[in-house]
Design a protein that fits this description.
Layout lengths: L1 E6 L3 H15 L3 E5 L10 H6 L3 E5 L7 E5 L4 E5 L4 H4 L4 E6 L2 E7 L10 H19 L6 E6 L23 H11 L4 E2 H5 L8 E2 L11 E2 L2 E5 L1 H4 L2 E6 L15 E5 L3
Parallel strand pairs: 1-2, 7-8
Antiparallel strand pairs: 1-14, 2-4, 3-4, 5-6, 6-7, 8-12, 9-12, 10-11, 13-14
Helix pairs in contact: 4-5
The structure holds one DNA strand.
DNA sequence: ATGGTGGCCCGGCCA
C-alpha cells in the first residue's frame, strides 16, 4: 500500500497540481493538510473522477485536513473530541485498506514566547491520548501530516541558525518523541539516515533553490507497518514548477499484514 | 532591506 501526505497550502489553489501528482504517483491513500476549505467546497468529485473516495474536515479559511483513498474509506472521525482540543480543523481519521489512517496538521506554535507554543505541545499530547482512546499500537496505524516539528538536526538546513525558533526546540522534539513512544516509528528514518532531505521550504528568499528547508512532514507508523516498508520518497519534483505548495508530498510503500 | 513570498480575500493575518 502506498500512503502519502501533503500539506497543499490551499487545495483551491493547488487542485490541478494535486490531480497531476495523484496520476503519476498513484497513492492508495493521500492525506492532505491546509486545504483552507469549508466542507461544502471540498472537491469530492475531482477525486471521485480519479477513482478515490474522500473525507474532509474544514471550516473555510484556515487549516482543513482530508483523507483521499482508493482502498476504502470507513469509520471517519473528524476532530479531537472538543473544539478546544482541536484548535481548528486539524485532524481527520479513517480506516483505509486495513490501516487506521490519521491526517494531522499540528499547530505551528508561532514563537517560543507565544501562547500558541504551549498549545502546540498540548495538541501533540492530546493526539497521543486520542490514539490510546481509539486504536492500539498492535494494529496497523499511520499518522500522517505536517507536524511542524523537525525531529532532529539532520532534518534542518542549519541547526545553529534556527536556535531559539519553533520546529526545533527541545520541548517540541520531546513532545514528538513522547507521541512516538505510544508505538509509532518515523518511517522515513527506518529507510534512510541521510541529512538534508527536506519536505518544506519557505517561499521567501529562494529557500528551495538554496536547500534551506526542513523535514516536518512525517508518516509515523506502528511496528506492524514499519516492519514491512519497501520504499519511501520525499518527492521534490512537486515543489518545482507552476504554483507549487511550500511543502512537497512524502510517501511510503508498505505491506499491510 | 526590521523585509522577504504566497494564500486567504481586500487590510492584515498566517505560515
Amino acid at each position: 500500500m502506498r500512503i502519502a501526505t501533503w500539506n497543499v497550502n490551499s487545495l483551491t489553489a493547488r487542485l490541478a497540481r494535486v490531480e497531476e501528482w495523484i496520476r503519476y504517483a498513484e497513492p492508495d491513500v493521500l492525506c492532505l493538510q491546509e486545504t483552507k476549505q469549508a466542507d461544502a467546497a471540498f472537491p469530492h468529485g475531482a477525486f471521485a473522477a480519479l477513482g478515490y473516495e474522500s473525507a474532509h474536515h474544514g471550516d473555510g479559511r484556515w487549516n482543513g485536513v482530508a483523507i483521499v483513498s482508493r482502498v476504502g474509506l470507513a469509520g471517519v472521525s473528524a476532530g479531537m473530541g472538543s473544539d478546544d482540543d482541536d484548535q481548528g480543523t486539524r485532524l481527520i481519521a479513517a480506516d483505509c485498506g486495513g490501516v487506521r489512517v490519521l491526517s494531522v496538521y499540528v499547530p505551528n506554535g508561532r514563537s517560543l514566547d507565544s501562547e500558541h507554543y504551549p498549545a502546540k505541545l498540548a495538541w501533540l499530547a492530546r493526539l497521543k491520548a486520542l490514539l490510546g482512546e481509539t486504536t492500539s499500537p498492535d494494529r496497523p496505524v499511520a499518522v500522517c501530516g505536517d507536524f511542524n516539528v523537525a525531529p532532529d538536526d539532520r532534518d534542518v538546513w542549519d541547526p545553529a541558525e534556527l536556535e531559539g525558533m519553533t520546529h526545533v526546540s527541545p520541548p517540541e522534539r520531546e513532545a514528538l518523541a513522547d507521541l512516538q513512544s505510544w508505538g509509532l516509528v518515523d518511517s522515513f528514518r527506518r529507510l534512510y539516515d541521510d541529512d538534508g532531505l527536506f519536505s518544506w521550504w519557505d517561499y521567501r528568499g529562494g529557500s528551495f533553490h538554496r536547500h534551506r528547508g526542513m523535514r516536518i512532514d512525517l508518516i509515523l507508523v506502528t511496528e506492524v507497518l514499519a516492519d514491512h516498508l519497501t520504499y519511501g520518497l520525499i518527492d521534490r519534483q512537486a515543489r518545482k514548477g507552476e504554483k507549487p505548495s511550500d511543502h512537497t508530498p512524502v510517501f511510503i510503500d508498505t505491506d499491510v499484514p
